[in-house]
Automatic annotation (TrEMBL):
Gene3D superfamilies: Leucine-rich Repeat Variant (1.25.10.10), Phosphorylase Kinase, domain 1 (3.30.200.20), Transferase(Phosphotransferase) domain 1 (1.10.510.10)
InterPro entries for the chain: ARM-like (IPR011989), ARM-type_fold (IPR016024), CIK-Related_Protein (IPR051177), Kinase-like_dom_sf (IPR011009), Prot_kinase_dom (IPR000719)
SUPFAM superfamilies named in the record: ARM repeat (SSF48371), Protein kinase-like (PK-like) (SSF56112)
Coiled coil: none
Species per Swiss-Prot/TrEMBL record: Trypanosoma brucei equiperdum
Name recorded for this polypeptide: Protein kinase domain-containing protein
Bias-annotated ranges (Basic and acidic residues): 692-701
Length: 715
């Protein structure tokens, strides 16, 4: 490490400069007419804060440039004004000057489409062109504000231009290049001594005269510099910008007509030949349509002044921001807008901010970007105690949650989200049930097995019928995320419970859920649990419930029929060896594929309404019967008994005679064919009527059980 530090001009430690370059970081050269800086990324030794380290070697530099470097270091340490690149520390050691600033990149190294963000922009696309103009407008406002702050402190910058502007990590522009900063009363001795180092077009016309007096409108020097910055950024292309110092003249600057129309008037005022007629920077910021008509610039200003606004102004602004944020530069939304929104949460979160976050999140296709920039904001919104904010974030859960990292959802979002199940507000409970559908795939298996059934059961006891209905449907929609070994038992309990719900849509939802999840039940479960539980609803007083119940019964019986044929086929092939109870048809290509209607689908496209609250619309694709095939499940039921009000029968053995009643003589009737009969078209005899005769010689009797569910047996 010591060798690396020495190779780039650092010793092992620099007194009074606790900053170290990052190993492997590349270097960038910031060429200016006055000083050539070497830039590299570094970090603070104590706080590990990221910085950019500027360095310049004084050994081979002419004396007057050495003075400029030392002057720049002094000004960087002392000037803490808005819009000025913030300097964290500076030192001179062994003929080298070091400056540590906030992370930045030189504006002069970026292409026109990257000034303020890595946005790849071309002038051919109107939307991207407007986004680029917004970036420049905000940058000019930042630089102009820095110059105005200097003027209020009786200082001029004297070196405003593209090579003295740097772009920080949020995409905002910052003014640097402080080597020519001087006081109003010191312009003649300081600025004029070194301004000859600047290109000719960068020097105001009056300063090129030998009889220039500094007692006039001194701030006009920076007005000319701001006009040069506009010309270098918007007036020429990237290829020509590198040759401006050799090819550009004052007349070229003043005659530029390629600027946006809203900037022409303000630009002409900044570069007037007569310094007394030249507009000052503050006037340009207040009157330029290029800046004041930009929604992006005004929104960023409002976010900066958010703490000074009252509640009504904040609410109006958040609603306006949601309507215009889609027009902002994408990377500006990522780096700047979201950051300022999070800062505004300190003063309270308004419901309107959720819509803004949703629109920004929709423009983040990269999972890495989403996790870095959007996820922290979503977590902060879930932590809000404002009920309207909670409701809004739940309403947009399907748009915001799927792209979040599962670890963040399970570890940080779930605990806040789950509190909505116990909210006193019915709308929050309802949308918490709906939000379970997008959030479930991001949860761990432990969370799904332990927590989700508990909250589903809680919602199924809610006083609001639509909430009970939506809880049932939500469980059906997340069926595939539940571990296979828990599905049949959980579904039987949760869906079976709702079959007796007094709210008709809730019973319908339970039936459709059974229909949809029938593939997760074994044949034994269907015979012992599903059919006995569903059958009573075939006599329901509501026609829709009866129809759906019959559909489920038909699908269940088809499953049992397919299972019967599969068992019969396997026993024939295996020497009539009867398989044990619970054998399931696992052959998805066999007779089980003919099961009708067991693959009922859910319509999740919209939300219907019932009463005062809305209910998920759950519709089967089958009509009046079953049309789709359902492969038989392969896993036996984990529980052998029925769960819908069934009672255990007393233990009865086959040889237990006490459980049988007295023998009753049963006289079976014998069918007799009348003498009149006809033949059908196939030649078979078809009787006209059937009668029965008594046959006392048939003495077979039936014994009937006294108790239990026992069947009769012949003797």
């Amino acid at each position: 490490m010591a060798f690396l530090l020495r190779a780039i001009g650092f010793t092992e430690s620099i007194p009074g400069f606790p900053y170290t370059p990052c190993s492997g970081s590349s270097t960038t050269t910031a060429d200016t007419p006055t000083i050539t800086w070497t830039m590299r990324q570094g970090e603070c030794d104590e706080s590990k804060r990221s910085v950019t380290i500027f360095s310049v070697n004084l050994a081979d530099m002419e004396p007057r440039k050495r003075e400029l470097v030392r002057h720049a270091m002094k000004r960087a340490k002392s000037l803490l004004l808005p819009g000025i690149l913030r300097c964290y520390g500076a030192a001179e050691h062994r003929d080298t000057v070091y400056l540590a600033t906030e992370p930045c990149e030189p504006l002069s190294k970026m292409k026109c489409g990257q000034m303020g963000s890595p946005l790849a922009t071309s002038g051919d696309d109107d939307d991207e062109g407007e986004a680029f103009n917004d970036i420049v407008a905000l940058g000019l406002k930042a630089v102009g504000s820095a110059v105005s702050a200097l003027h209020k402190n009786k200082l001029i910058h004297g070196n405003v231009g593209r090579d003295s502007v740097f772009v920080i990590s949020t995409g905002e522009w910052r003014l640097f290049g402080l080597e020519l900063v001087s006081g109003f009363d010191d312009v003649g001795s300081s600025y004029l001594s070194y301004c000859s180092l600047l290109p000719a077009y960068r020097r105001p016309p009056e300063t090129q005269h030998t009889n220039y007096e500094s007692g006039g409108k001194t701030c006009a020097i920076d007005s000319w510099g701001l006009a040069c910055l506009i010309y270098e950024v918007l007036g020429v292309n990237d290829q020509a910008s590198g040759k401006l110092s050799q090819s550009c003249s004052t007349e070229d600057l003043r005659s530029c007509r390629t600027l946006p129309r809203t900037l022409q008037s303000g630009f002409s005022g900044l570069c007037a030949v007569n310094p007394k007629m030249r507009h000052d920077v503050d006037r340009f910021l207040r009157t330029s349509d290029f800046i004041i008509s930009s929604d992006y610039v005004q929104s960023m200003q409002m976010l900066d002044d958010y703490s000074l606004k009252d509640a009504a102004e904040r609410e109006r602004f958040m609603e306006h921001l949601a309507n215009v944020v889609h027009t902002f530069p994408r990377d500006a939304c990522k780096h700047l807008v979201l950051q300022k929104l999070r800062a505004s949460f300190t003063f309270g979160i308004l419901p309107g901010v959720v819509d803004t976050v949703v629109k920004i999140a929709a423009r983040m296709p990269s999972p890495e970007e989403y996790a870095t920039h959007v996820s922290p904001v979503i977590v902060a919104l879930f932590r809000s105690k404002e009920r309207m904010v909670r409701l809004r974030i739940l309403q947009h859960a399907a748009e915001l949650l799927p792209q979040m990292p599962p670890a963040v959802v399970d570890g940080e979002v779930w605990s806040e989200y789950a509190s909505g199940f116990e909210s006193p507000i019915a709308a929050i409970r309802e949308h918490s049930a709906r939000a379970l559908v997008p959030i479930a795939p991001l949860l761990t298996e432990k969370r799904i097995v332990n927590d989700v059934p508990k909250y589903i059961a809680q919602l199924q006891q809610d006083s609001e019928g639509p909430i009970r209905t939506n809880a049932t449907i939500a469980l059906c929609l997340i069926a595939d995320t539940i571990p296979a070994e828990y599905r049949s038992k959980l579904f039987a309990q949760r869906f079976g419970r709702m079959l007796k719900d007094p709210f008709a849509p809730s019973r319908t939802a339970a039936l459709r859920s059974f229909h949809t999840t029938l593939k997760h039940f074994t044949a034994q479960d269907i015979a012992e649990l599903v059919i006995p539980g569903v059958s009573p609803l075939s006599m329901d007083k509501v026609a829709e419930v009866r129809a759906v119940a019959l559909d489920v019964i038909h699908a269940a019986v088809s499953r049992l029929d397919a299972n019967h044929r599969e068992i019969s086929s396997s026993t024939a092939n295996e020497g009539n060896v009867i398989p044990p109870a619970g054998v399931v048809n696992n052959n998805t290509n066999g007779a089980g594929n003919g099961v009708k209607g067991s693959n009922a689908a859910l319509d999740t496209q919209g939300w219907g309404s019932s009463g005062s609250s809305s209910v998920i619309q759950l519709e089967s694709t089958t009509k009046g019967g079953m049309e789709n095939s359902m492969p038989a499940a392969s896993k036996a039921s984990p529980f052998p008994q029925k769960v819908w009000g069934s009672q255990s029968s007393p233990s009865v053995r086959e040889d237990d005679e006490e459980s049988w009643g007295e023998e009753i003589q049963m006289k079976p009737h014998k069918l007799r064919l009348h003498s009149t009969a006809t033949r059908n078209g196939t030649g078979a005899v078809v009787p006209d009527s059937l009668t029965s005769d008594d046959h006392p010689e048939d003495k077979r009797t039936l014994k009937i059980r006294k108790k239990g569910i026992g069947a009769s047996r012949l003797s």
